[in-house]
Amino acid sequence: MATNEKQKTLVNPQHQPTVAALLSIIPGLGQLYNKRFVKGASLFILFAAFAIVMFNFISSGLVGLVTLGEIPREHDSRVFLSEGILSLIFLAFFLTIYYLNIMDAYKDAKRIQLGWTVPNIREGFKNAWDTSFPYILISPGLFLLIFVVVFPLLFMVFLAFTNYSLYNAPPRHLLSWVGFENFIRLFSIQEWRTAFVNVLSWTLIWTFVATSLQIALALFLAIIVNDKRIKFKKLIRTVFILPWAVPAFVTIIIFSALFNDNFGAINLQIIEPLFNTRIPWLQNAFWTKVALIMIQVWLGFPFVFALFTGVLQSISSDWYEAADIDGANRWQKFKNITFPHVMFATAPLLIMQYSFNFNNFNIIYLFNQGGPAVRGQTAGGTDILISWIYGLTFDNQQYNMAAAISIILGLMVATFAFFQFRRTRSFKEEGNF
């Protein structure tokens, strides 16, 4: 009974969506079946032109991606790898449009079944333009994203599964696929495992301590400056934001001179007169880490201070007046009013601060190039993962190991950011606040 009622609603039951979809296996035929003649002819010509022009490139690229070359000194495996990745991108693009072509024919046939009238050429162009206009606007950015971001990332990911190193560099040698061997080496060989554990542990300590201190200092200063008893607030805020106005690399280079063991002002003018000794800021890994954390707190707190200052000014004074009437002390007002509001408004940006410091290459490299050196290891005493990857790539030419570590680094940052953003209250519905 229900089937009969459904069939009565079909104005044109002889027109079958399944037939249109099957005909669209050859692009354009399904549209011709739906009497979309201009659209069908255009799709057939576009797909045919793409297949004729790109078939040889895609097929040879995919073969080269498997073999990575066959003749040493003549074939460059890096070129084969690049062409193979481009072939995968073009093939993915082709398959996506091919799938959309089938779905378009199926949906049009479904609408024709229900009585939809096929528009004329003018209406068809107008409808197509209205539908595709947003995609036309974003297409330049999408293509730029694919070839500037996605392509290099895929190249790096593929390198992690090859044997590309200083002693096996093309075109003199051909690369070969080694599977997960690089990841196994990272955790099974003593030298690599020790270096990875040391660098990862320092990266986590660096990220948590430096970022938390800069946030705590910024919140402390913002609360003090926001106090009604403080005068010259504009001047104080301007002074606190000045470190943010100076380019970071300039500040880091200045601090590297100030912390110099031999002629730095911190040793000569402060430490030695007071304690009759000199601290080996650049020669001892522990003191280098202390200096790096202090510098990062100096560089990072102005931005967070500006955020907190704006949020504190937006909190209604009625909340604090109600708390005073209830007899709340300063700590209770901070715990129940100030801190929740500040965190709710700035939590996503604070998470970005942790992610930024996790990959903060500039300060590590410019201050002491990740040193001091550690005997028997490819990583310096203050290298974090990103600076270690840089050293492996440009100093040691261990491209395969650098790519493997980069994948692990990317997964760690993405996982942390994803779960933290999901837990952030500012991303939930207002009713859950």
From TrEMBL:
Does Secreted count among this protein's keywords?
no
Q: Which domain of life is it from?
A: Bacteria
What are the entry keywords? Answer: Cell membrane, Membrane, Sugar transport, Transmembrane, Transmembrane helix, Transport
Which Pfam family name is an example for this entry? BPD_transp_1
Q: What is its main location?
A: membrane
Supply the CDD domains for this chain: TM_PBP2
Stretches that traverse the bilayer: 43-68, 80-101, 135-161, 204-226, 238-259, 290-312, 337-356, 399-419
Stretch forming the signal peptide: none
Instruction: Report the residue ranges that make up the ABC transmembrane type-1 domain in this protein.
Output: 200-420
Q: How does it sit in the membrane?
A: Multi-pass membrane protein
Location in or out of the cell: Cell membrane
Family per similarity comment: Belongs to the binding-protein-dependent transport system permease family. MalFG subfamily.
Q: What name goes with this protein?
A: Maltose/maltodextrin transport system permease protein
Organism this protein belongs to? Evansella tamaricis
Q: What is the lineage of its organism?
A: Bacteria, Bacillati, Bacillota, Bacilli, Bacillales
